[in-house]
Specification:
PF0523-like, globular, five-stranded antiparallel sheet, alpha+beta
Length: 209
């Protein structure tokens, strides 16, 4: 897991990538938690799954994801969230269009998800508390709900066993006919690098669009 303090925003971002085995059960739990009443049990269950759940096959790099996180944080600071929560806003920022349902369909957790990026955005703490949280608390919360193995964020964009869906990325970001990538062999290093630059730029420009 990696943690990124954002002093300007008063937030810390925690990110971990997993090879996940319980995607279907986890998605069911997310849906069920959203439907629980606003009592102590319901709030406790919602807190247990208080993350952005991003299908890692739709991420090209660490920067791609961090750009979406930064855009979501800025949107909340400006009072301009398009979704109900900061974590769901991360998914919306990854979506090149403006349809919230499409962002969940394209980038959210599905029963077939094999690689999952979990994002938790929390208030900035003291250096001592940040170190303690980064070294255990957030990761333990992730481990409590995810069945799988941790992976390096360096693998985003080149996950094994078909874990990165370059074809789907080109389609969602409407790059199938883009001259910059059309003639590049899918899966090649050059294609991956160009795709990463294009999709990350799209996310970075979304708020200004």
């Amino acid at each position: 897991m990696e943690s990124y303090p954002l002093p300007h925003a008063g937030q810390t971002v925690h990110i971990a990538v997993w090879s996940v085995r319980n995607a279907a059960q986890l998605r069911h739990r997310l849906v069920a938690a959203s439907q629980l009443p606003a009592d102590e049990e319901g709030e406790r269950e919602r807190a247990a799954v208080d993350f952005a759940f991003v299908d890692a096959k739709m991420l090209t790099s660490r920067l791609h994801l961090l750009t979406a996180v930064q855009q979501a944080v800025l949107a909340r600071a400006d009072g301009a969230l398009k979704t109900k929560t900061l974590h769901s806003e991360v998914l919306w920022m990854l979506e090149p269009g403006n349809n919230i349902s499409d962002s969940l369909k394209h980038f959210g957790l599905s029963p077939s998800t094999s690689h999952l990026a979990l994002v938790h955005i929390a208030p900035l703490l003291s250096e001592e508390d940040e170190a303690r949280q980064a070294n255990g608390e957030v990761l333990r919360r992730m481990e409590a709900i995810v069945e799988g193995e941790l992976r390096s964020l360096d693998e985003l964009g080149r996950l094994p066993d078909g874990g990165t869906d370059e074809k789907a990325l080109r389609k969602v970001y409407k790059l199938t006919q883009d001259l910059a990538v059309r003639n590049l062999k899918p899966g090649s290093q050059e294609a991956s690098q160009v795709l990463d630059r294009l999709v990350t730029s799209t996310v970075a420009l979304k708020v200004a669009m």
